[in-house]
Amino acid sequence: MTDDYGGLIGAFPYAFRASDSLLFRSYIVVGTVATAAVSLLFVTALVGVIAATSGGRGGSLTLSRSFFAVVGLFVVVPLVAPVLLVARRHRRVGGHATRYDAALAATGYLFLLSLYVGLVISVPPAQQTTPTGVLAPAVAVLYALPQLAGVAPPLLAATVELGCHRLLR
């Protein structure tokens, strides 16, 4: 198969060529940029965590480094999953699956939005600013939630992403 892809990196251009959905094609561009930015953010933060804990011995310090890397994977995997799933479907099944492609793109965008909402919820009180504008009431409600609730929106969005894949495949 000359049109086949060769792994993670090759799945992105393959899915872009194979899909007829404009929404999905836009997600490939936005998702790629978001994935690169989030990956860079986690790698630099991990370097900072390692530098800050380099003087200590193993134990909980090593565990915190590993936990940081696992959290990074839990954020990056749902960002690339729509692209990988669509590329896999087009490679195996072929044909036009515009509805499937568009639905997975929508769940990818939903996950991006949920990351932002989760970040707003988890802003420390000392760094919160007074919300203004049209979204001020929504931001005030998000600020009022406990910081740990910031995990819920991305978890829910990733579950919706998986459910959409299972339902429409």
TrEMBL record:
Q: Which residues form the DUF8056 domain?
A: 1-169
Membrane-crossing residue ranges in chain numbering: 27-54, 66-87, 99-123, 135-160
**UniProt-listed Pfam families:** DUF8056
Q: Which InterPro entries match?
A: DUF8056
The lineage's top-level taxon is: Archaea
The entry's keywords: Membrane, Transmembrane, Transmembrane helix
Q: Which protein, by its recorded name, is this?
A: DUF8056 domain-containing protein
Recorded source organism is: Haloplanus ruber
